[in-house]
Amino acid sequence: MASVAVDPQPSVVTRVVNLPLVSSTYDLMSSAYVNTKDQYPYLKSVCEMAEKGVKTITSVALTSALPIIQKLEPQIAIANTYACKGLDRMEERLPILNQPSTQANTCFSNLDLDVCLKENGHFLTS
After folding, report:
1. What is the pLDDT along the chain (126 residues), one digit of tens a residue?
2. What is the pTM of this model?
3. Does the record carry Cell membrane as a key word (predicted)?
């Protein structure tokens, strides 16, 4: 008898990163960062040194934390499940999360998010 593979629930971090508002904002900021580094050579060298330091620190931290993360894997899975449910509710109540930042900007330029959400039939409360 063939076994059926069950796909694990996606990580809440992966889901957040893949939200159109988040991913498009990241793309815009990343592009601005790269363009700024290209325009200012001195700033570029400082940024590259900082990037190298962050990569080194991250690598050491991950190596050190890996045994703890492995021990806490069941608890992390439970927390991920609850976080995904919370994200589901946020996506229902804030459909702006599923729009790229260029579209969402029309609401934010209004400077009154509550009014903008009400005009579009969405409410922050309840």
Report:
1. 455 444 567 899 999 999 999 999 999 999 999 999 999 999 999 999 999 999 999 999 999 999 999 999 999 999 999 999 999 999 999 989 999 988 876 666 655 556 555 655 555 554
2. 0.70
3. no
CA pair distance 109, 15, nearest whole angstrom: 26
Helix (H) or strand (E) holding 33: helix 20-39
Residue with tokens 């991920």: 80
Which tokens is 11 given?
């990580």
Tokens 């409410």 belong to: 123
- Give whole-number Cα distances, 67 to 63, 64, 73, in Å: 8, 7, 10
3-state SS track over 39-101:
HCHHHHHHHHHHHHHHHHHHHHHHHHHHHHHHHCHHHHHHHHHHHHHHHHHHHHHCHHHHCCH
Count of all residues that appear for the chain in the document: 126
